[in-house]
Amino acid sequence: MTRWIAFILGLTIGIAIYFWKENQKNSKIKKLLSSFSPNFDRVDSLPITSLVRREFTYVYEQRQQLEKELAILQDLLFFAPIAYLQVDEENQLLWCNEQAKQLLKIDRWQPGKQRLLLELVRSYEIDQLIEETRRTQEKQIKEWVFYITETQKTRSLALKGFSYPLPAKQVGIFLENRQPLVELIRARDQTFSDLAHELKTPLTAIALVAEALQNRLQNPELGWVTKMLQQTQRLSNLVKDWLEISKLNENPTQHLHYQSLELQELILASWETLQPIAQQKEITLTYSGVAPISLEADRDRLTQVFLNLFDNSIKHSLPQEVINIEVQVNIKEIIINIIDSGKGFSEPDLPHVFERLYRGDPSRTRLAANFSQHGSGLGLAIVKQIINAHNGSITAKNHPATGGAWLQIILPHKEQN
Amino acid sequence: MSIRPPNINPDKTHFYRCLRRVEQDVLRMGSLVEESFRLSHQCLFDRNIDAGKKITALDKQIDKYYHQIEIDCGTLITLQSPVAQELRMLTAFMQLVRDLERIGDYAKDLAEIAVKLFPYPPHPSMGEIAAMSQHAQLMLATSLVALTELDAKSGQAIKQLDDTVDDAYEQLYQAFAYQQNIRGVLEPILLLVLVIRHLERMADHATNIGQRVFYIVTGIR
C-alpha cells in the first residue's frame, strides 16, 4: 500500500515539475518573441510553435521588403547623374555607378573583382580624400582638377568630391563634374571680350564725332554733347580695360615689356600723376623702405597698378588722411604694402574684390564712378592680372591698426650680381 | 595588379596584405610623379610659374614614398622570403621607384629651366617640344597602366613609343645645333637643349618601367 502511495506521489511531483518547466519555457519564448518585434500580440491561445512560425514569417517578409528597398536605392544610385564610388578598408573599389565609370574612365573593372582604386583611377587627390575621410571619420569636400593623358593632349576635368565615412572603414565618394561650369565661365569671358572688341571701334567713332561737334555748338546743345562725350569716354575706357584684362589673362607674359626700373621713383611718379585729386582732399603719401630697389618689370603696366591702387585709396580716404607705402625686400621677393586709413573693405567683399566688374557697396562705387574714370569695377581686376603676369601675387585685407584697406603686392626679386 | 592570395595558404594572407600596401604606395608615387610631370609641362608651355612651386612640394613627397617603398620592399623580402613572381615584383618595385623618382627630379629641373626661360620670348619650336613632352607623359601613363594591369605586352610596347621621342629629340637637337644668325644671348637655346635632353631621359625612364613590368610577368630580362 505504501508502495502505491509513494509511486503516485512521485508521479504527481514529476508531472507537476514537467508542467512547471514547460510553462517556464513557453513564457521565456514568448518574452523573447515580444522583445524582438514590437507588434507581437500575445495571443496566448495559440500553441507556441505557431507563434514562433508566425514570427519567422513576419521577419522574413520584413527582410524581403528591406531587400527590395535596398535594390531600389542601389538602382537609383546606379543611374544617378552624379558619380558615386565606394572603397573598402584597403582602398579596393567595391562599387561604382555608371556615371563614375564614364567620368573617370573606369573601363578596366568588372564588378566583384578586387582592384585597388588607384589601379583604376590614378588620382592622388581622390586617394588623399579617402585617407583623410577615414582618418577623421568626418565627411570631406574637396575640389581639384583631374587629368586624363591621351595621345594628343591631356584632358582636364574639374571635379568636386564629397566623401562620407561608412561602417567597416569603407568610404563613399560622390564626384561632381564641374568641367561644364569651367567651360561656361571661359566661354562667357570670351564672349565678353569679343563683344568689347566689337564695341571699341564704334565707340571711338562716336567720341570723335562728339568732339568735332563740341567745337561747333552753342549752349544748350554744347552741354548735352559734352555730357555725351564724357559718358562715351567712360564706356570707351571700360571697353579698353576689359580688353586689357583679357589680353593679360590669355597670355600673361607676351604682352609685357620688361625693363630695368627703380621702384621708389616709379611709385612716387605714379603718385605725382594723381596729385591733383589728392590735393583736393589734402591726402598725403608716406614712403618707407630701403632705397634704392631696382627690378625688372613692365614700366607702363606697373605704373597702372599704382595709379589704380592710389586712385582707390584716395577715393575711400577721408580728407587729410595719410596713405602709407611700406616696402620690404628679402632675397627672393619685394613686398609692397599700401595701407590707407579709409573705411577698408567690407568683410563679405574681401574674397571678391579682384573679380571683374565686382562692386562692393553699390552706392559708394556709383559716386566714385562720376568722380574718376576708373569706377568701372575693373581697376583691381587689372591690377591683379598685371601682378600675376609679373609672376607676383597680390592680397587684399584690412589693416588692423588703421582699419583701412591694406593691399600687399609681392613681386619676385632677382638679386643683382 | 592581379596577384591574388591563393586561398589554400592562410599564413600568406599577411604577406599579401603587405604586398598590396606596397603596391598602393608605388601607385601613389606614380600618380604624384605624373602630376609633377604635368605641372612641369604647364610651367614650360603655358608659362604657369605657380606650377613650379607645387612641384617642389610634390618632390618632397615623392622622395618620402621612394625611401618608404625601398625599405618596405627590403623588409618584405627578408622577412617573408617570397618566391617567383612575388619576389620579382618586389625587386622590380625597388628599381622602378628609382625610375619614378628620377622622372620626378627631371620634372623639377624642367620647372627651374622654365623660370629661367620666362623672360625670353617663346622659341618657334616650342610647339614641337610640347608635343614631345606630351608624348613622354603618355609613355609614363602607359607604363603605369601596364604596371597596374601587369600587362607584359603593353610594357614592352612602350619601347616603340620611345622611338618617337628619340626621333623628336634628334630632330630638335639638329634644329638647335645648326641654327644660324642667332641674335641676342645664347641662354634660351641652351636651356631648350637641356629641356629636350631631360624629356628624352624621362621617356627612357618610362621605358624602363615598362621593361620592369615585362620582367615581373615573364621573368625574362
From TrEMBL, chain A:
GO molecular function: phosphoprotein phosphatase activity; phosphorelay sensor kinase activity
One GO-annotated biological process of the protein: cellular response to phosphate starvation
UniProt xrefs under InterPro entries: BphY/WalK/GraS-like, HATPase_C_sf, HATPase_dom, His_kinase_dom, HisK_dim/P_dom, HisK_dim/P_sf, Sig_transdc_His_kin-like_C
GO cellular component: plasma membrane
Record EC number: 2.7.13.3
EC class: transferase
Keywords linked to the UniProt accession: Kinase, Phosphoprotein, Transferase, Two-component regulatory system
Domain Histidine kinase: 194-415
Reactions performed catalytically: ATP + protein L-histidine = ADP + protein N-phospho-L-histidine
Pfam families for this protein: HATPase_c, HisKA
Gene3D superfamilies per record: 1.10.287.130, Histidine kinase-like ATPase, C-terminal domain
UniProt name for this protein: histidine kinase
Organism (species): Gomphosphaeria aponina SAG 52.96 = DSM 107014
UniProtKB/TrEMBL annotation, chain B:
Protein name as annotated: Phosphate-specific transport system accessory protein PhoU
Gene (name only): phoU
Organism: Gomphosphaeria aponina SAG 52.96 = DSM 107014
Entries under NCBIfam families matching the protein: phoU_full
Subcellular location: Cytoplasm
Function text: Plays a role in the regulation of phosphate uptake.
GO biological process: intracellular phosphate ion homeostasis; negative regulation of phosphate metabolic process; phosphate ion transport
Superkingdom to which the source organism belongs: Bacteria
Domain PhoU: 26-113, 130-213
Record family assignment: Belongs to the PhoU family.
InterPro entries: PhoU (IPR028366), PhoU-like_sf (IPR038078), PhoU_dom (IPR026022)
One GO cellular component term: cytoplasm
Keywords: Cytoplasm, Phosphate transport, Transport
Assembly: Homodimer.
Lineage: Bacteria, Bacillati, Cyanobacteriota, Cyanophyceae, Oscillatoriophycideae
